[in-house]
Design brief:
This protein is mainly alpha-helical. 82% of the residues lie in helices and 0% in strands.
Length: 222
């Protein structure tokens, strides 16, 4: 006598599929145990490496910040030669840290004040490339590079660099000063018309700046 065929429910079908998938997964894992082991080891290695890098960066920043404070103290005492020595070592060993990036800017300024304009310009340029998130520091570095050209008598090039900074960062805290330097450099380069235009721009755009009165006086002399 035939027994009635048992009706298969949706629940049973789902359970059966899960069992099948589990069996397939288990079989694949058994066949690829070496691969799983290697992948797991690689992931673990990446995690460990990431933790090591983060801890190493934290230690590097801690050391760099202490060295930067010491170097700034020497710099502020106008002992630029010793400051250059301290800052050079800091940049070389911890240049990738925040303190290291600021140290490069100080190094450029120290070199500038000792008349090493070519070396200073190179460090100002590198500092500017790494200080993109801080407009004040970035514009200071860019202006420093232009100032090196100015000190070397390259007035036209310096003027153009100064002007580009103001065009790109018109709201920078030192924008009026940079614009004033641009006008002076154009005047020194013999382009009095361009100088007059920039003096007037300074008067119009930065009426509350300290450079306004100087611009008014020099504009009247053009």
């Amino acid at each position: 006598m035939l027994t009635p065929r048992k009706r298969i429910t949706k629940k049973a079908l789902k359970e059966d599929k899960l069992i099948t998938l589990y069996a397939q997964a288990t079989k694949w894992a058994e066949e690829n145990i070496k691969l799983i082991t290697y992948v797991g080891a690689a992931v673990l290695l990446l995690i460990v490496a990431s933790i090591f890098i983060q801890n190493n960066r934290a230690r590097s920043e801690s050391v760099a910040s202490v060295q930067l404070a010491r170097a700034i103290h020497v710099f502020d005492a106008n002992d630029y030669n010793n400051a250059i020595s301290l800052l050079s070592g800091l940049v070389e060993n911890h240049g990738g840290t925040k303190s290291g990036r600021i140290a490069r800017l100080y190094l450029a300024q120290a070199l500038y004040r000792t008349g090493e304009y070519a070396a200073a310009a190179e460090h100002f340029k590198k500092a500017a490339a790494k200080l993109g998130s801080d407009i004040h520091l970035k514009t200071t570095a860019l202006a420093g590079e232009a100032a090196c050209l100015e000190q070397q008598g390259e007035y036209a090039q310096a003027a153009e660099k100064y002007e580009k900074i103001v065009k790109k960062y018109p709201d920078a805290p030192i924008a009026p000063y940079i614009l004033f330097r641009a006008a002076r450099c154009f005047a020194n380069a013999g382009d009095s018309t361009k100088a007059e235009i920039l003096y007037q721009k300074l008067i119009d755009d930065y009426p509350d700046s300290r450079e306004k009165n100087d611009a008014l006086m020099l504009s009247a002399m053009q």
